[in-house]
Design a protein that fits this description.
Oligomer: single chain
Shape: rod-shaped
Number of helices: 19
Strand content: under 5%
Number of strands: 0
Amino acid sequence: MCKITRCLIGLLFLSQLLIAKEKKISAATVGKNTVAFAVCSGNTSLQKLKDSIHKAEALWNQNKQKTSLRLYLDVLEMAKKEKNKKIINEALMKISKVFFHAKNYKKALTYARSVVKHTEIKKDTKQLLKQLIFIGNIHHNLYDSDFLKNTVSLDSMEYFYKKALDIAQLTKKYDTIACRIHSGLSVASYLKKKYKISEKHILKAIKISSSQGDTLNLITNLNTLAGIQVQFKNFSKAIQYYTEALQYLDTYKKELTKNHKGDLLKNIAWTYDQLEDPIAYKYLIEANRITDNLKDLEFDAILNEIEAKHNVDTFKQRAEKRHLLEVAKKKRFQTWSIVLGILLVGVASSFWVYAIYTNLKRENVQLEFGRLQLLKEREMKQIESEIHIKILNATLDGKETERKEIAAILHDNVSAILSAASLHLEASKNKIKGEKPIEFKKTQALISEASSKIRDLSHQLISAVLLKFGLDHAIHDLCHKYSNSRIKIKCRTENLSRYETSKVLKLKSTTSLKN
């Protein structure tokens, strides 16, 4: 977003520069060192001022900014002495534009406001509109140079453009100026992230520039519209507008198109990159190839030096005392600047330390919270384990109790009944004389078999040997029971201690459950 915003600002600035250059009056070439006023005995003071302004313009066109600014300042001083408001106004305009191009926007704004005051008195509507637009553009560049420090500049920019629009809407003869106003309002709304309003203004600007055949403004407005589409994430449409602007630019054979084209190609490359299209690299390479790398790094410092020298000369001519007061004022300003700088560093350091402390505290709280969570989870798992063991013990105890009851019933009741039945059967058998029925023998065998099975079942439920003599004897008894003449089972045990009866029964029940 920052790249596209800078490109929008660059294109708006370049378009205004080209329009201004096309409307300049061509001046005769002057010598390299032309600084002094041309003195002709037959010319009046007014003619001298006009000649000096023409010479300053010629010097500006020759990129001699230093001598041009000095000459404009001299013209301003002479015009004030002559009380020539027209020349004063013109000199103020020129000086404000010089500082604007030098990116010294605050000084440019000071001189531009003076122009607005003179223009409002003269009631020159067209010139007033141009100055309001120019002031809006200055605030725009102020905001762009440091948007954190100059946040108010964005509101000021919107205010002056709206003020100009209110005046321009009174008549249709200012449509060309209205186009520039809508462009400026579109950029202001764009920077405020009011993209719908920005789109509304730029569409109006495109309509006006298209109807008037103003190719340069049309290119700039299409570029702005494409940037708005980028904010809407409509990258395909943005590429369409960028490409259309590029096509108009290729047919526009005038100066400054190189910088325009470089900016447009960079915007297209960035937009294709958002679509992850490899063609972005092609446009980026082309943009880097044609971009003008000339930068005036010392331009602002040179202009400030010229103005400072001029002010020193003026102060010396007026009074030495005033000069000393000004020096003292500068020293006080420097002292306060140093104090303020130290305070700002201290405040910044305090915020930095506080931020580190806050982060460490937050991290400690998070670690403590995590530790408590782990402890809670561990306690919950321990409680679940204890509950599970209790449930298992209760289940095993219940099964063992049930086994004991069933074994007792089988041994004490059913076995006793079968024994009694066997005795009664034997007594009945003795009372019968002669040959005994075979059913007696079969009944006796069935009773014996039932008694044997009940005894085995009872031993399976509760092993008497295991309870009375322990695991060692129970194992030997089991081996002896299942041995016969064909299979001999032998076992050997060592160091088998006797356990509590409840533990032995639970172990036996657990083994039975697994089987």
